[in-house]
Amino acid sequence: MATGEAMTVPGLGKAPPAGACTAAESPPGLWQAVLEQSGARFDDSGVIDFRHVEAERRQALSADVMADLSHYGLIEVKGDDAQKFLASLFTGDVRLVSAEKGLFTAWCDAKGRAQATFWLFVHDGAFHLLLPKGLVKSVLTGLKLYLLRVKATLTDAGNDLVRVGLSGPSMESRLAALFGAPPPEQAGDTRSYGACTLMAITGQPHPRWVLVGSAAAVAETWKSLLSSVSPVGRDAWSLLDILAGVPLLLPETAGEFIPQMLNMEALGGLCFTKGCYPGQEVIARLHYRGQLKRRLYLAYVASDSVPPPGTTLHIEGIAESVGTVVSATRHPDGRTALLAVVKIEEKDQGEVRLADAQGPGLRFIE
Predict the structure, then answer these.
(1) From the CA atom positions of the chain, what is the Rg in Å?
(2) Tens-place pLDDT, residues 111-144
(3) Got the DSSP string for 147-213?
(4) Smallest Cα–Cα separation from 210: which of 187, 182, 231?
(5) Are the C-beta atoms of 154 and 140 separated by less than 8 Å?
(6) pLDDT in tens, 195-212
(7) Partners of residue 119 on adjacent β-strands
(8) CA–CA separation, 35 vs 42, rounded Å?
(9) pLDDT-based confidence at 11, cuts 50/70/90?
(10) Most buried of 22, 25, 32, 255, CB within 10 angstroms?
(11) How far is CA 143 from CA 7, 150, 299, in A?
């Protein structure tokens, strides 16, 4: 099946098996209680880990895992003009987004610089943006500026719906057994099961999904998987995002990159035939003239600490920075795995180093 192709699954109109996203009322604090019972540690952004951070990173690379994604926020967009409104703003072909199809895409400013990257999908008849929590406020405020004479509403839905990440070599068969039907396979394919929406996303080294729904519905699914699937924290899930080449912007990197620098075209989030959107002229000019000077790379570095987003990269003898860290986290082997946008020509002119020309060197994975 090609990416974006909708699939009709027999039985999807039926109620899912008990314990699999069955609709139920969510008492206050239910999801927090479920996570606490699973051993979660929290900070202001959500779950840190489940008290075994090193083991969780190893499990994420080899076993079936599930992660609370409360460090991601949700923006809900609904109304008669919602799809047309979003299509006029985002770089991906929003015309294709439906209950069966989502996509990873970006919102840019007039200069073609990505202000945010996110997954866009439909849940319960409304469009939703899943993005790092630190960008929700600025993106919500920015998008609302375009709402003049548009029949659509935008709200922060982060407290209304629970989101969970799922990954692993046997997760597909587990989900099929749990929901009574095959889960979506290609990145962006989306299915509804009871009160939940399940979307396949880019995965490496194993397939991945995001599950979104009411606290009660997701809690039943979580508890059904808990005996055989390991819960992992945000660092383990971030490692999977990095290995999959998913460039999630944070406040430190918002507005720094044109979508092509982030590999958005290969990820299916950049369309050149869909009509106008902010920054389109800059983005299209770069595409048709073929003058891309920076691109996204996966790399490893032996560093004492994990570099924050926005950390610059350098080569000895070159005065200006040659790149910028987009995201980074610790790998189970002790090194740091990172995604960075690097100048293509300079990359091979010397060893690219972290933070300054004397910093630790990066090893790139093509």
Answers:
(1) 20
(2) 999 999 999 999 999 999 999 999 999 999 999 9
(3) -TT---EEEE-TTT-EEEEEE-TTHHHHHHHHHTSPPP-STTBEEEETTEEEEEE--SSS-EEEEEE
(4) 187
(5) yes
(6) 999 999 999 999 999 999
(7) 104, 130
(8) 9
(9) very low
(10) 22
(11) 32, 12, 33
The order of strands in the sheet holding 103-108 is 103-108, 114-123, 126-132, 72-78, 153-156
Mean per-residue pLDDT for 272-284? 93
Torsion (CA) 54, 57, 61, 63 in degrees, nearest 10:
80
pLDDT digits (tens, 9 = 90+) for 312-365: 999 999 999 999 999 999 999 999 999 999 999 999 999 999 999 999 999 999
Q: Is the dihedral of CA 299, 303, 305, 309 positive or negative?
A: negative
> Would you say how long the chain is, in residues?
366
- Cis before residue 207, ω within 30 degrees of 0? no
Question: In which order are the strands placed within the sheet that holds 230-232?
Answer: 190-193, 196-201, 208-213, 162-167, 65-68, 230-232
Distances in whole angstroms, Cα of residue 238 to Cα of each of 10, 219, 303, 327: 34, 22, 18, 8
CA–CA dist 81, 65 (Å, integer): 38
| CA 85 – CA 92 distance, rounded (Å) | 13
Q: How many CB atoms lie within 10 A of CB 103?
A: 26
**Residue 267 half-sphere exposure toward CB, CA atoms < 13 A:** 29
The model's pTM: 0.93
